[in-house]
Design goal:
single chain, about 280 residues, alpha/beta, Rossmann fold, Hypothetical Protein, Haloacid Dehalogenase-like Hydrolase, Chain: A, domain 2, 8-stranded mixed β-sheet, about 20% strand, globular, magnesium ion binding
Length: about 280
């Protein structure tokens, strides 16, 4: 019997058009009505994740920043695993030296430490990743008008974040140089005490070494007396691999998932553009 469903957002619950389908919402609410708990497990910050989930009519708890924070539906922090300031400073400096976009998710919101041009290229990279029919050059021309660019809050130094006593939950970077991103995932986790992963081939996500979606779900379930074989997990990318391990009862890969995820998961559902999450819930409940 399934007692807990844990779902990723981007590429999973959320479509490529950045919405949560009615089919997914109805299946989630049906499961909740049957007494099954639903929780969001995402690389996003709470401030980024909650408005979209809430506006879709879903009320639930959140494991955000790849497990760096557990928040309830009201946004209160229940549990946290942040990065050490000294480590943040070193990694930010290294990413800046390589000319990469740098953004930090903190207890005071999200901030970018990159210049305007780098921010625009990062937004263009994100747009191109979701909409391959738009070239990265075309996306760059429209970047300043895009909501992703308008949401960026710039700071000149990471010290501005520390001076406000904000804790850093995640460092992220974007680049269309996929080989560079892949190498950084490997090298940074060896060089520093961090967990380096990503939601897509174009991005890098750095968190506390104990901040992993799989471990976070296990801890969450254990505190509620839920056994591993009573948990369904759904994801599509690198940072979902931890929550798709064999120890969970029902591990679901999206139809649009990367091959590593499909190989590891026990089942494959439809894509994020075809109610894949809702269909998986309907199938197994």
């Amino acid at each position: 019997m399934i007692k807990l469903i844990a779902s990723d957002m981007d590429g999973t619950l959320v479509s490529n058009n950045h919405d949560i389908s009615q089919g997914n919402v109805e299946a989630i609410k049906k499961a909740q009505g049957m007494g099954v708990e639903f929780i969001i497990t995402t690389g996003r910050s709470y401030e980024d994740a909650h408005p979209q989930v809430s506006s879709a009519g879903i009320e639930c708890n959140y494991l955000v920043m790849n497990g760096s924070e557990l928040r309830n539906a009201q946004g209160e922090i229940i549990q946290s695993l942040y990065l050490e300031n000294a480590i943040v400073e070193q990694i930010v400096e290294e990413l800046n030296r390589q000319g990469l976009y740098v953004e930090v998710y903190t207890t005071g919101g999200s901030f970018s430490l990159s210049d305007v041009e780098t921010c625009k290229w990062a937004v263009a990279t994100k747009i191109n990743n979701f909409h391959s029919e738009i070239s990265i050059e075309q996306a760059y021309e429209k970047a300043e008008e895009h909501f992703l660019y308008k949401a960026i809050r710039r700071v000149d130094s990471i010290k501005e974040v520390f001076e406000n006593d904000y804790q850093v939950g995640k460092i992220i970077s974007f680049s269309n140089n996929r080989e560079k991103i892949a190498k950084l995932r490997e090298s940074l986790s060896k060089k520093y005490p961090v967990n380096a992963t990503g939601s897509f081939a174009i991005n890098l996500e750095i968190t506390n070494p104990l901040a992993d979606k799989g471990e976070a779900i296990k801890h969450y379930a254990n505190n509620r007396g839920i056994y591993m074989d009573e948990i369904m997990t759904i994801g599509d990318s690198y940072n979902d691999l931890g929550m798709l391990s064999e120890s969970f009862g029902y591990t679901i890969a999206m139809g649009n998932a990367i091959e590593e995820v499909k190989e590891q998961a026990k089942y494959v559902t439809d894509t994020n553009d075809a109610d894949g999450v809702g269909k998986a819930i309907e199938q197994f409940l």
